[in-house]
From TrEMBL, chain A:
Compartments it resides in: Cytoplasm, Perinuclear region
Source organism (scientific name): Aromia moschata
Recorded superkingdom: Eukaryota
Protein name: Trafficking protein particle complex subunit 2-like protein
Location (main, coarse): cytoplasm
InterPro entries the record matches: Longin-like_dom_sf, Sedlin, TRAPPC2L
GO CC entries: perinuclear region of cytoplasm
Family, similarity comment: Belongs to the TRAPP small subunits family. Sedlin subfamily.
TrEMBL record, chain B:
Pfam families registered for this protein in UniProt: Foie-gras_1 (PF11817)
Residues of the Trafficking protein particle complex subunit domain: 179-432
InterPro entries per the UniProt record, alphabetical: TPC11
The organism of origin for this protein: Aromia moschata
GO cellular component, one term: cytoplasm
Protein name as annotated: Trafficking protein particle complex subunit 11 domain-containing protein
Source taxon at top rank: Eukaryota
Length: 139, 995
């Protein structure tokens, strides 16, 4: 179960942000912001290799005392960030990976929605519910 | 530690001036020995090694050869009680450096031995120790050994001993009373270990050692009352580790983004904050320093980390509660005196610089914010405000509105508390923006404060701020409004505000006599109504910038409700000086407040937002009932002023294409179709691409003029008036030429407007005709070579290529030597003929060549004088290139009547000519064809010379001569009826030999 999910646009502005405990949102935003540094660094290192078919899943970005942060970047440089409680041992790498894949699918759906304008923050309610479900693992 | 580092030497070196052959040898030896003795006495029982170095002026011989030297050396050693190895000689000669290095190595070796022995000595103590009673000593001994080995520069062994010491230390049970001591010692050991591991190039081990160390001691708080001490220790651990790490990085250790010193400095800062918090909790009640001073003698303690009020006591003894609490009070009191914020800020500073090095801009920003928070906490609002405003920019750029809102809130407080009006207003405008997520109540408060400032009233402070702070702020605010009207110019270019603007030119080009229109759209996203006093636009031209105020006041008010968009129009006349220049909207200025009290000049740039990359998609956005779709207005911030579109009608009449070499006439007719009469009309003609192949003139066949050519001018032309002129040109090369006609004039309207009209003509130039030359023999057969003195015909064909009919006025041949014409009265056969396209005319002229030629050379000019129908006559010269000319010694010519009659005799005479200087012998035979009978010589020999071979005529040359000179056929007409008139019968003539 993740505690926070963020979708960051290609110019590093947040498009979607949700976390289980709304009081901690600001704190999580800072955490996501830190991890963006690592994402940028990884992307820069990746682009030097010149491989187009790179792995979208970036793995663990930060391991803090309380939380672990995972990252995933689509080919269009949309970044997905998941924050997991570091006490949560049930989540393996594979689960995180599949969680990202589900979020990616949800994101693809929302982009296909003609009422959504790419680049704008996502405010769809159903999207929020779907992501929350993915976070809590009820899907 | 101090003892070993600074007080006890390992080796003592006594330098003494003494030569082996010194005259006062024995006295000096005794003096030296006494020095050594006194030194030894001073050292007591330490294991320090004493050595003596003799500084000598004379160069000594190799060892063993100088008997005196070795003898005296032994004597010296014995008198000083030294062994022979401790005596050195330093000759004061040329190669001082070499000797110095050798001495250094020797001393180094001694040191190492000494420390090794010391360490062994310490180790020998170990046997006497008991694990249960001497736990502390175990640690002490191991540490000592580690230290000694480190001094010996044996890093590996030192590391081993430190590790042992650390492990021994971990075995000690930690209770409140000894927590500080163990923590301190563990800190030392950990520092040593990590340092050595970095030195051994084991950074991973160092980091994991440090992490394990922190994990072990994190929860060993010690006294509840002294938690801050624990946090101070943790903070110190982190910052020290950061230092070691940083040092290692400077020595070449590569650090990465996720593992670098900055992380540790950041942690250190975090613990420093916790220290501060616990200090605030625990020390607030302590007011006075207890008496008597329980901390007396804190610096002279024998062991690190023990409490001064119970030095050297073992844990087992029960502490005296009164002394204990006094001591704690004293420490708490001292803690309270410390400026924590400074420590925290310094640590943040270190961390920020590290994060900057390791490319973590966002983390760095976060740290800067925390630093700003700390400044805020330490009541340094000015610095905090500076940091906050710097950070706002980045978050704005990346659109983290929530974080931005939080920062704005803090920054606004800082601005309020420092009474910084300009920043306060700027931040207030930003807070009121719809994107900022501050609560509506808060926004209302800010809005009211903004209005108060506009009325020169002190704004209300945040009710959440403590009272005394507010009091100070109000005192600061008072002088701000006492001065004259406040005027601020605020640059809104880089911030998001509650007022958004867009400006655009309605067209990308404006003609000089048109009004330039600028549309300004203003949207207020403030949740409360806003009223402006003025809207204007600054327009920049390359030379100057000017400000234009909104012109459509009447129908648009300057009151804005929430999310209202209004359109303002600004119109002005373009300046004629700006023709072909770009004008730009430099800024949009909105005036808020009134001039008398407080007035804010909000300055926006007109440049489009570079961040929007999917502007097209905004069309899908639902804009509600707003009339103006603000999001979809594309700013157009620059426009070009162009000359006005001329309504002059220019007609160029000319029969295309031009023919090569002719004077070609272009007629230009200008009709004034403008609304007004015009004056100062000038016509200029030029070529688009400069070339020397075309010449212009005002008259046919006139003097070529320079370009651009002024074709004509008139001072006045009526409405519907006409003006015409013409120009002549001659092209010397084929091709296409672009001719530009530029007409400049001034319009006779209310405001004289200068106008330009250009007209381009594309003119192809073609050849009028083509001349081909053929050379024929007298028998009208084409020949391949001329022969000297033999006549030939020059046949010129003129093929007309021009689409227009061409009249040939005259033609003439002009031969140059050695070719000459053989015709006396030449009249051109083509004169007066007219040719249409593709028609061919031919002309023949007889000529002969007087000299043999080996090359096809220029034999003359063929001149054609021609013109178009109704055109101007032109002369074209064509060069004729001849054939090679061969020399034949023999010439042959047959003279025959034009025709003969059946059964009527006619005379054929063959004329043979010898052109050489020799006599030629020829065999001539004449054979009749079947149709003829003939009389005369049938076969004869001619003019026999002495030697025939010299002339060198080949038989086939003669045959060719006959073929080209003797006609093969003759017309024979039927016999006329009646009496045939006998033609003159030639009497057979005697052959004469031409000399």
């Amino acid at each position: 179960m993740a505690v926070c999910v963020a979708i960051i646009g290609k110019n590093n502005s947040p498009k979607f942000f949700t976390c289980l405990n709304p009081d901690e949102e600001l704190n999580f935003q800072y955490k996501v912001l830190w991890s963006l540094d690592v994402v940028e660094e990884k992307l820069n290192a990746g682009s030097k290799g010149g491989t187009d078919l790179r792995e979208l899943y970036l793995g663990m970005l930060y391991s803090l005392e309380t939380h672990k942060i995972y990252g995933y970047v689509t080919n269009t440089k949309i970044k997905f960030i998941i924050i997991v409680d570091s006490t949560n041992m049930a989540l393996r790498d594979n689960e995180i990976r599949s969680m990202f894949r589900k979020i990616h699918a949800e994101y693809a759906d929302i982009v296909c929605n003609p009422f959504y304008i790419p680049g704008e923050p996502i405010c769809s309610k159903s999207f929020d519910i779907n992501i929350k479900n993915i976070m809590t693992g009820t899907v | 530690m101090n003892k070993h580092l600074y007080e006890i030497p390992a080796v003592i070196v006594i330098f003494y001036d003494l030569d082996w052959n010194d005259p006062l040898w024995s006295e000096k030896m005794i003096e030296c020995a006494s020095r050594v003795q006194s030194m030894r006495a001073a050292l007591e029982d330490r294991h320090t090694r004493i050595t003596v170095v003799l500084i000598q002026n004379t160069l000594s011989l190799p060892a063993g050869e100088d008997l005196l030297a070795s003898e005296r050396a032994i004597a010296l050693c014995s008198s000083c009680e030294l062994n022979a190895q401790s005596l050195f000689v330093l000759p004061h000669g040329d190669h001082l450096q070499g000797y110095a290095v050798r001495l250094e190595n020797a001393f180094y070796e001694f040191c190492q031995n000494i420390y090794h022995n010391e360490a062994k000595h310490v180790k020998s103590h170990k046997e006497h120790l008991n694990k249960n009673t001497h736990q502390y000593l175990y640690v002490r001994h191991q540490f000592k050994m580690g230290m000694l080995y480190e001094l010996k520069q044996d890093v590996h062994t030192a590391h081993k001993h430190y590790t042992h010491a650390y492990n021994n230390l971990l075995e000690i049970r930690i209770v409140d009373t000894n927590a500080l001591e163990i923590r301190t010692v563990a800190g030392f050991l950990n520092y040593k270990l990590c340092r050595l591991m970095f030195a051994l190039n084991l950074p991973r081990d160092a980091i994991s050692q440090f992490k394990a160390h922190i994990d072990r001691f994190k929860n060993r708080m010690g006294f509840q009352e002294l938690t801050f001490e624990h946090y101070a220790w943790l903070s110190k651990q982190y910052s020290v580790f950061g230092d070691i790490f940083d040092e290692a990085v400077k020595l070449g250790l590569p650090a990465v983004q996720t593992q670098h010193p900055g992380i540790y400095y950041q942690q250190a800062a975090q613990y420093a904050i916790m220290r501060k918090k616990s200090c605030q909790e625990l020390c607030s009640s302590v007011i006075a320093y207890p008496h008597p001073d329980p901390l007396e003698g804190a610096n002279q303690l024998e062991f690190y980390g023990q409490r001064p009020w119970r030095p050297g006591k073992v844990t087992a003894e029960p502490p005296d509660p009164q002394v204990e609490s006094n001591g704690i009070h004293a420490i708490q009191f001292l803690e309270k005196q410390i400026n924590h914020s400074n420590i925290i800020i310094a640590l943040y500073g270190l961390a920020i610089s590290q994060y900057k090095t390791y490319r973590c801009p966002r983390t760095r920003r976060h740290l800067v914010l925390q630093m700003a928070d700390e400044y805020y906490n330490s009541k340094d609002y000015g610095k905090a405000l500076t940091l906050f405003t710097h950070m706002l920019w980045d978050f704005r750029g990346e659109r983290w509105w929530e974080i931005l809102s939080q920062i704005l809130d803090k920054a606004l407080k800082c601005a309020y508390l420092t009474a910084n009006v300009q920043d306060y207003v700027l931040l207030a405008l930003e807070v009121l923006c719809s994107l900022v997520t501050t609560s509506l109540d808060e926004k209302r408060r800010v809005y009211e404060n903004l209005n108060r400032i506009l009325k020169k009233q002190i704004p209300y402070g945040d009710p959440k701020l403590p009272q005394d702070v507010l009091q100070n702020a109000i005192i600061l605010w008072q002088p701000v409004f006492s001065s004259q009207p406040l005027n601020f110019s605020l640059d809104m270019a880089n911030i998001i505000t509650c007022v958004e603007t867009k400006a655009r030119f309605t067209k990308s080009t404006y003609e000089v006599d048109q009004n330039v229109t600028v549309e300004v759209y203003i949207r207020s996203t403030c949740p409360f109504p806003l009223t402006f006093t003025k809207v204007s636009v600054t327009v920049n031209t390359p030379e100057y910038s000017s400000e234009f105020a909104v012109t459509n006041w009447e129908n648009v008010s300057l009151n804005f409700h929430s999310f209202e968009v209004k359109r303002f129009v600004i119109e002005f006349m373009a300046d004629a000086n700006d023709i072909n220049k770009e004008i730009q909207i430099g800024a949009i200025n909105i005036l808020l407040g009134n001039q008398a009290e407080c007035c804010l000049d909000l300055k926006y740039t007109a440049l489009p937002d570079a961040n929007d990359n999917h502007v097209e998609l905004l069309h899908f956005k639902y804009t509600g009932n707003n009339k103006v779709d603000f999001a979809n207005i594309r700013p157009l911030s620059s426009a070009t002023i162009v000359p006005r579109d001329s309504k002059l009608n220019v007609e160029c009449i000319h029969p295309q294409p031009a023919l090569l070499g002719e004077w070609y006439e272009i007629k230009i007719n200008i009709t004034n179709d403008e609304q007004f009469s015009i004056k100062e009309l000038k016509i200029e003609l030029g070529l688009v691409e400069e070339t020397a192949d075309v010449e212009f003139s005002l008259k046919p066949a006139g003097q070529p003029q320079k370009l651009p050519l002024a074709l004509g001018r008139t001072d006045y032309l009526d409405k519907k008036g006409k003006y015409s002129t013409n120009v002549f040109l001659v092209a010397h090369k084929l091709g296409k030429y672009q001719i530009q006609i530029k007409i400049t004039y001034t319009l006779n309207s209310d405001k004289p407007v200068f106008s330009i009209k250009t007209e381009n003509i594309v003119l192809p130039v073609v050849q009028p005709f083509e001349v081909t030359t053929k050379y024929l023999s007298m028998l009208m057969c084409e020949i391949e070579a001329f022969h000297v003195e033999e006549e030939f015909a020059v046949m010129n064909y003129v093929k007309c290529l021009s689409p227009w009919p061409i009249v040939i006025e005259n033609t003439s041949f002009k031969f140059i030597s050695p070719v000459k014409s053989v015709e006396e009265n030449v009249t051109s056969q083509l004169t007066g003929k007219m040719f249409n396209e593709e028609e061919v005319g031919a002309e023949l002229n007889l000529a002969l060549c007087e000299k043999s030629l080996l090359q096809n050379i220029n034999i003359g000019q063929y001149t054609i004088k021609w013109k178009r129908q109704n055109g101007y006559s032109t002369t074209t010269q064509v060069t004729m290139y001849g054939l090679t000319c061969e020399w034949m010694p023999v010439g042959l010519k047959m003279v025959a009547p034009a025709h003969g009659f059946v059964r009527t005799p006619m005379v054929l005479s063959y004329c043979l000519q010898n052109r050489s200087r020799q006599i030629i012998q020829l065999d001539v035979s004449v054979e009749a064809s079947e149709a003829f009978m003939f009389s005369g010589y049938k076969q004869l020999n001619l003019s026999v010379s002495d030697n025939t071979e010299d002339v060198g005529i080949q038989q086939d040359q003669l045959r060719a001569l006959i073929e080209r000179s003797v006609p093969t056929h003759l017309y024979v007409m039927p016999q006329v009826k009646g009496e045939p008139v006998m033609q003159t019968v030639y009497a057979p003539k005697k052959m004469t030999v031409v000399n």
